[in-house]
Amino acid sequence: RVPDGARGLHVVLLRGRRQARRFARAYGRATRGQPVEAKSFGADSALVESLRLDLPARKIHIAADGEIKSVTTPLEYRIARDALRVVVPATQAP
């Protein structure tokens, strides 16, 4: 459990290839521990409990767990609170 932490779906809306390239560069910086601001790639972002995406296309390609998948729309996402149990080793005294 994250004390006083916010949990939710992180949504980033990208409009066009140029914005997607900027986001990819910003994401690369973030994974290397460098500071990144959302305005640096010009996208809207939000933290939500659930989300439904109604898109004009019946089928789209998404990236999930490092793989490209073909899915039907609309897409629906929600937070499943306490659905995953994480086990970590006990710490040892020095």
Return the domain count: 2
Residue-averaged pLDDT = 80
User: Could you tell me the strand content as a percent range?
Assistant: 25-35%
Q: Strands across the major sheet, in which order?
A: 1-2
Specify the biggest β-sheet.
2 strands, antiparallel
Mind telling me the C-alpha Rg?
17 Å
Characterize the overall form: extended
Total beta strands: 6
Number of helices: 1
Question: How would you characterize the overall build of this protein?
Answer:
This protein has 94 residues and is of the alpha+beta class. The chain folds into two domains: 39 residues, no CATH class; 32 residues, no CATH class. The chain is built from one helix and six strands. A hairpin with a 2-residue loop joins strand 4 and strand 5. The two termini are 26 Å apart.
Can you summarize this structure?
This protein has 1 helix and 6 strands. With 94 residues, it is of the alpha+beta class. The protein folds into 2 domains: 39 residues, no CATH class; 32 residues, no CATH class.
